[in-house]
Amino acid sequence: MTLESFRDELAATACTIAAQGKGLLAADESNGTIGKRFAAIGVDNSEEHRRAYRSLLASTPDLDDAISGVILFEETLFQDSVDAGGQPGPPIVELFQSQGIVPGIKVDQGVEPLAGGLPGESWCTGLKGLQERAARYYARGARFAKWRAVLKISPEGCPSELCVRENAWGLARYARTVQEEGLVPIVEPEILMDGDHDIETTAAVQEWVLRTVYEALSHNGVFLEGSLLKPSMTLPGKDCASAPSPDQVAQFSLRTLERTVPVSVPAILFLSGGLSEEEASVYLNGINRAISPAPWHLGFSYGRALQQSCLKHWAGHDVHGGQQALLARARANGQAAQGFYVSGSEPSDGTPLYEANYSY
Length: 360
Ligand code: 13P
What we know:
Layout: H1 3-17, E1 23-27, H2 31-40, H3 47-58, E2 67-72, H4 74-77, E3 80-82, E4 88-91, H5 92-98, E5 102-106, E6 111-113, E7 122-124, H6 130-139, E8 144-151, H7 161-179, E9 184-191, H8 199-219, E10 228-229, H9 246-260, E11 267-270, H10 277-289, E12 297-302, H11 304-314, H12 319-336
Parallel strand pairs: 1-2, 1-12, 2-5, 5-8, 8-9, 9-10, 11-12
Antiparallel strand pairs: 3-4, 6-7
The structure holds 1,3-dihydroxyacetonephosphate.
């Protein structure tokens, strides 16, 4: 197909996802990553358990009050659900659709070491056969896609220019390719929190990265009104001597985005990147309080920070408990996306979610 034939639909999908007070549930953990989550709650990483857990997410009543879309892993997009009693049900994707939640799909195939880059740098794979896969995902109901490029900051000089350029170009090739098959691309250049650098350093690197990404998107003719940005918040390194205040995170994040992201992009949906559930909500709330009206919808696309309590309450069997915990964090973030979340007003799990050198 062509981008032209999908232009109106892409803009409409992006607008639906950018609905006021809503954001994305990122439930696209690869089988390896969900295995780590399950191990932490003593659940085996079998297809049946993955089916049961993702069915819990999809059948959560009123999830659509704060969730406009869900990012799925390929297995889940094609998987049938089971109900709380273990009885077979409709496809998981249909459960989300029946609540008006737009299904999306992770299309990158993970990162690999970047030849010629600095030690620890990566590039993101998945372009080969992407157009055919995108068409198959669209036919199954997916309407948006995600591709996560990862960059790190280090005293050794990371990110290198090669790493920034390669990852920006990969994001742009992906975005253009999936738009031709009707999927709204989520452009995700994550800057890892690893390191002891200050917030000014992150801001300078992130400005460079985002500038390069939007230049590459332009070279590839990506239709910005039918795309979404998923950045990390502008934060100091995890081991930086001074922790940031929510006001500081808001000021630096907004300054970075205002300098680099065109206003034709309908929404900026932050990743949680290893923040705790409550930190992710409080920082998003601060960002929304610091600017009104913002030129873009400023929302969330959280994985760890939306699912941690849910996983712990579910623990392999308590579907209702898991769903209530998920709803609590969805409500908190829905309010934070409008700047009126009151810290501590919803239950959360305080477990630190940061992992060094994280891959999804
Ligand atoms: P986290 O919110 O856990 O960082 O996940 C973001 C992500 O990329 C999932 O799609």
